[in-house]
Amino acid sequence: MSGKIQVTVDESLNKAIHVQAQKMGLSVSSYARYAIKDFMERNKSKKTLLEKALESESKEISLAAFKEQIKALRGA
After folding, report:
1. Mean pLDDT of 34-57
2. Is pLDDT of 76 > 70?
3. Which one of 3, 12, 37, 66 is least enclosed by Cβ atoms within 10 Å?
4. What are the distances in angstroms from CA 12 to CA 16, 18, 24?
């Protein structure tokens, strides 16, 4: 079974993909397949952001304190 995926990239990424594909002697579509598969293989065992967040230390704060933090960030 095969499928088709269409991806839109900005001009600089498009250029980088073309350059890398040419360096490897691949077509752009072949390089894209290679890059996606390589990325997925490297990230199989990595934790999701949610898993990382749940494992990290945290502290409870009130909603009012949270709003103050947001206001402070907006003013920064």
Report:
1. 86
2. no
3. 3
4. 6, 10, 19
